[in-house]
Design brief:
heterodimer, A: mainly alpha, three-stranded antiparallel beta sheet, 5 helices, 12% strand, globular, B: mainly alpha, 4 helices, 80% helix, elongated
Chain lengths: 102, 145
Amino acid sequence: MKFRLSPQTLQVLDAFLQGPKNWQYGYDISRNTGLKSGTLYPILMRLAERKLLETSWETPEIGKPPRHLYRLTLDGMRFAQEHRPARSTRRLARAAFGGAKS
Amino acid sequence: MLRELDFIESDWAALFWALGSTAAIFRHSVRGGLRAWLEKRRDQSQGLPKESIGKKAAGVASGIVIVLAVTFFAFALVRQLFYAFPAWDLGSMPWWVAMIVIPEIIFLVTAVALWRKRRSMATGILLSAIVLVVHFVVHAATHVQ
């Protein structure tokens, strides 16, 4: 699947992989990743368009508005895991060489 | 995304969340609108049948013919009036008023009137009228001292 993997998208996928089968709120993902809503939601929309995420509305309690929930699909889980080694390698490389300046 | 606002503790954080969400919605809708418009344009240009292109070309050509005919008759009329009625003192009227200004006004009015129903013909008229004006301006610039 052709998909532009920005560092922010990788962060979002990483956050989903913490609990791959759990439904997550947008605000919680934002807190876990540190991404602002203006960055996060376009990523969530793109992932949902490509069927990597499934979305659902929370059944609301009385007096509270329903919230949108997100979860990885099977394809999304596979995709996120496929890109995990690359992320780990990149993270290792950053940890090893990130501080060095030429 | 804006429903999350009720669950954000700080007012400032809620404000920034709302601003970011609004920006995301705006970008998404602009991108979607632009994409739909481009697709519509592409479909229109691809789905244009040959007969329709031929009809349009005929419309433009007929507009050009109308302009040429009107200009020719205006020229002929002015020439005839000079000889037929010398007592009218037509010489005091600049020839280009009869040859250029009056026909150009007629072309403009006709093009505006035809624009909705016969756009291709109106385009032909407008194009020819522009060519006529440009020709006149170049002629005036090179011949008048």
